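Minutes, project huddle
Topic: does the predicted pose make sense with UAG bound?
PN asked that the exact inputs be recorded in the minutes so nobody has to dig through chat later. Recorded below.
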Amino acid sequence: MFLNALLTDLEYTLVKGDLHKEAAAIAYDSREASANGVFVAVSGFSVDGHQYIDKAIALGATTIILEKDIAVPEDVTVLRVANTREALARVSANFYHRPTEQMNLLGITGTNGKTSTTYFLQSIFEQTGTSLGIIGTIGTVIGDKVFQNKNTTPESLNLQQIFAEMIQSDMKHCVMEVSSHALNLSRVAHSSFKTGIFTNLTPDHLELHHTMEEYFEAKAKLFDMTTDYNIINADDPYGRRLIDRLRDRAPKLLTYGIEQDTDIHAADIHYFADYTIYTVNTPKGSATVKVNLPGTIYVYNSLAAVATAYANQFSLQQIVQGIAAVEGIKGRLEVVYQDEDSKIIVDFAHTEDSLEKALKTIRPFAKGRIILVFGVYASDGESGTEKRRAMAKVAAACADFSVITSDNPKMQDNNLIIREIVEGMEACKGDYEAVVDRRDAIAFAINISQKGDVILIAGKGHETSQIIGKTEYPFNEAEIVREIKLKAK
Ligand SMILES: CC(=O)N[C@H]1[C@@H](OP(=O)(O)OP(=O)(O)OC[C@H]2O[C@@H](n3ccc(=O)[nH]c3=O)[C@H](O)[C@@H]2O)O[C@H](CO)[C@@H](O)[C@@H]1O[C@H](C)C(=O)N[C@@H](C)C(=O)N[C@H](CCC(=O)O)C(=O)O
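Predicted holo structure (tokens), as shared on screen:
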């Protein structure tokens, strides 16, 4: 592509150089720079990309987009912009010929429920033989091809490349989990969303957003980017604020919920240990929905999928068939071991709200005690301490016994993290044991369990690693449980 075409709709100042030249590739990491390419210098959280401009030039970059006053060699074109992350999104979309303008892009945001909603949706789309691409926590899915992303919502350059690959594979529909980080850091800028979906908002990522208000405003940005529908959970207090904001403006608003009077409404809900049945009422009629996952959480997540599929013109029959066809979701209240005496469940719950909901879902069907294995993943600043205490409070209130352990301590002081959870537990007079090594903690929980007990291992869900320091160790909880059980026989 020619550089001047790449710069279409980008606001910039030409510091020096020629625009009538080739722009063969784009890089935001100097180590990925290549011949005749464009290097976009990003001021990061840990380092400043501007200091790697020389390295990018050495690897062949001939155009630099920057936001600071930096001296760059003569023969290189230099463009200055106000925000390089935003510029990266613009040139990346241009480079891949604005793929989202040719597709039906659905964006889901909210603290919890994003991943399972994408899985319900994928199954509904499959009912009509329509393939739906997925970008999210579990990775990117393009037909049979599945690969991991560094982030839940990838950086704009990677994202536009994924969209282009979807278009090339004739995949015209894509559902994407849109994180608040992505919205704040322009990763999804210049992507055209047909539909935006809001699940809920509870405390998380406050090390980046500082306050719930900032976190909410980050999420709310998605609903200024949509063209066809905004789909909102009306039972969530932040959802109701969004509804008030979006009610009298385009695009169309579709609400869902159980408690409030909503467009897509669940009633007559029957909960069972492994599944849930409810009636969904829509403006076009009612149907019975069977969700093969227990608890209110999955009523909400399946409702989000019902509303989205409804907005996308699927029939109620296709919708209920699609939801019933989902047998389970990896790491979402996943029963990884069960015999006559015991049940062991792995779940991604890693916020106080999701942990409480998971424990309350299990409680009515537990014949014995609930033994919870959990930790709190590394997070910076004061919100870390608050979160550790809050998680301990939930554990003390909703589980019978807790095994406090590690969850991706990364570079943080793991003993401090565990000590603060223990302090929270002591303050609430919870029954607990601290076992630093997560594998030992799981073994301990299994060892003390008695007939009828349910063990919930919370935090990692589908994840298959434990990050200690800078090293990522393999850690597959389903396999670990089976190994421990096998040894015990
Ligand atoms: C806090 C945060 O979001 N950081 C993201 C950010 O990194 P950064 O800007 O701090 O990068 P940096 O290391 O300071 O480097 C700055 C620039 O210098 C460049 N560089 C660096 C070294 C070098 O030799 N040459 C070079 O050019 C880097 O490529 C970068 O462009 O931009 C990177 C590129 O997009 C992201 O991968 C990175 O995500 C990190 C890994 C991360 O952990 N992010 C989390 C907090 C996150 O985004 N989570 C959300 C939500 C999760 C969920 O709830 O599901 C997500 O979407 O994943």
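Observations noted during the meeting:
- The chain is about 35% helix and 25% strand.
- Residues 28-31, 42, 44-47, 49, 52, 137, 150-153, 155, 179, 181-182, 185 surround UAG (CB under 6 Å).
No decisions taken; revisit at the next huddle.
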